[in-house]
Description:
A five-stranded mixed β-sheet has the order 3-2-1-4-9. Strands 6, 7, 8 and 10 form a four-stranded mixed β-sheet that branches. It has one domain (4-106, 147-184, 201-264): Spore Coat Polysaccharide Biosynthesis Protein SpsA, Chain A, CATH 3.90.550. It is an alpha/beta fold. It has helices spanning 15-28, 64-73, 115-121, 127-136, 155-164, 168-173, 182-193, 224-232, 245-264; strands at residues 4-9, 34-40, 54-58, 83-87, 91-93, 103-104, 107-114, 142-143, 150-154, 199-202, 213-215. The radius of gyration is 18 Å and the shape is globular. The longest helix is centred in the C-terminal third of the chain and has 20 residues, at 245-264.
Amino acid sequence: MAKVSIFIRTYKRDVAWLDFCLQSIHANLKGWDEIVVAVPEGQEGHLSHLGSERRVTTPRFLEDYVGQQVAKLQAHRHVTGDYVFFVDSDVVFLPGSDVRAFLDGDRPIVGKRLYASLAREGSASLKWQEVVADFFGATPEWEYMRGHGCRLYRTATLKALADEFPGLEGYARGVPRRRFSEFNLLGYFAESREPDRYRFIDEETGKLPDSRSRQFWTIDGLTPGTLAELAALGFRPRWPTTLSAFDRAKAWLSQTTRAVKRWRHRP
């Protein structure tokens, strides 16, 4: 029987969210065989509270927004499953959730949208078309960053991408923030190279899998309201913080600045 590996690439400021994510996986999510949690090199100590999950380290990037994306595209180096179920740290699974909802037979289900349709809407997702075109040298018709914090791909597809583009990590280190999009690169690669091994669904005309999950925004922090919402779902914090006083101050400043900006631009 095919094996499914859950791969979560987190970092020190998201470890508090990871606590809730893992609680929900163990309590509610079915259809998986192992959990692999990755952090950038130098942050291993922030995973000291993990239990049965396997810890791995991934290359450190000066711009971690890009680094975490590269880590996902290199997940085949760390997992043992035939499939990789990518999960973000701020996702909480609800009762009845099942990885197998993302499969049509043995084919992972991948959502997509036409760039032409996104252009008519004035969507910010249009920027990914140029990003993919720069990498592959061909302009994509579809945008693949569909879904809410969890996506399923074949492990073999990740390896095939790495084999065809061995310089991918070096390329990523040379591009600025917002000039890399892991699931748009992976989605385009999968559909152009392995179309029969996936089921691609146009989000406008078909129904995507219900992940039965709730995704939060880690940048806003674990506010009292968010903690109350998580408590109502049956989850409470278990782990003491591993952040230094300096990192806690940086997180507070970031969250406060974001809240002030939202307040100033409220209707």
